[in-house]
Amino acid sequence: QCALVIAALCALWARPAPPGTAAQRKRIVELVDATPNDALAPFAQRLDKSYIFSPDGQAAVAYKVRLGVAVASGDPLGAEGSREAAVRAYLQAADANGWRVAVLGAGEDWAAWWKAQESLRAVPIGRDVVIDVETFSMEGRAFRNLRQAVQRSHNFGVTTKIYDERKLPAALRQTLRETVESSKRNPHRGFSMILDALLEEEHVGTKIAVAFDRDGKVAGFQRFALADRGREISQDLPWRVPGAPNGVDERLTFDMIEWAKRHGARRVSLCFAAFPELFEAKPERGFDRFGYWAAHRLDPLIKLESLYRYLRKFHALGKQRYAVLRLRDALPVVVAMLTLEFGLRRTRRRERRGWRRLAHRDAHASNVTLPL
């Protein structure tokens, strides 16, 4: 029996995929820059992800293998006419390496494509929160709470400034790091909806919006990543100093939308709203009631409800996102997805050293079978 357990564990953990090489990541940056209308596209640039490209190199799938599951991150990137070829290359690689197939964060169109494949199912997990920059306004009764939050920040003397992450002044960068380190939140978690290397110089085009109180001290900050040549701006997790004036988060987001208007962006995508229906009202049906109960009991760990309350003020819930999987693989797939999004990670120093070493490792040196 012990031998069977060991064999099963080995089967689950065998043949991981190497992270993308420096050349692959450079190409991914180019494909993200060419991908429109996809709020999750910038997060394909995480340094711990692997990549499979279409034969013509014009599209790619970002993914990571966990527990023998090749979890694709959102939709394929790049040229629309090449994306299906990239997905089929990903499926071929999964088959060659014995990986289960799953997708975390598939958009509505691609969820329909996945459902058309044999035995795959698409389960809704939440909605994008997308601001149309050109038409956005805080006027009207619906935006009263948002207006009040932004106005409170002005009353407290809060000011904001937006920086290129790679060009942060050294003293400010250190202060923001201390803000993150003093938080109880894990800055290294995430997979499909959070970027990594926070406050480092790894990612091109990322912006840091910083709020200062009336004394010039940092009150909070938010990071934003760009796609589609700057026309698509996606928010990473917000960070707030304990005791900071009320309205800091809303003010930072509002000022980033104003910045986006001035710089020709079309959309600002805020943090993903996971299972928003669970926080609207207590449902009547049994399974939905269980989901409602579980979401509220687990919220001290995953902080979804407070994030939803913040996002609701913008009245911008958009299209559904889905998890795609085969029902027979549900247990390992769900565990893989949860540990990818919420699992503990190495400390920043070890993580960066490992990423730099792995980033330059030639994928062909591994025993994983990947398409050229």
What are the main properties of this structure?
disordered N terminus, 372 residues, globular, 38% helix
> What percent of residues are in strands?
15-25%
Weakly predicted, low-confidence segments: 1-11, 354-366
Report on the biggest sheet: 12 strands, mixed
**SSE sequence, one letter per element:** HHEEEEHEHEHEHEEEHEHHEHH
Describe this structure as you would to a colleague.
- By secondary structure, the chain is of the alpha+beta class.
- Helices cover 38% and strands 24% of the residues.
- It is built from 11 helices and 12 strands.
- It has helices spanning 2-13, 22-33, 80-97, 108-115, 144-155, 170-182, 248-262, 286-302, 304-312, 330-342, 348-359; strands spanning 50-53, 59-66, 69-73, 77-78, 100-106, 120-132, 159-164, 207-212, 218-227, 232-240, 267-274, 317-326.
- Strands 1, 2, 3, 4, 5, 6, 7, 8, 9, 10, 11 and 12 form a 12-stranded mixed β-sheet that branches.
- Strand 9 (218-227) and strand 10 (232-240) form a beta hairpin.
- Helix 5 (144-155) packs across helix 7 (248-262).
- The longest helix has 18 residues, at 80-97.
- The protein is globular.
- It starts with a helix and ends in a 13-residue tail after the last helix.
- Residues 1-11 and 354-366 have low confidence and may be disordered.
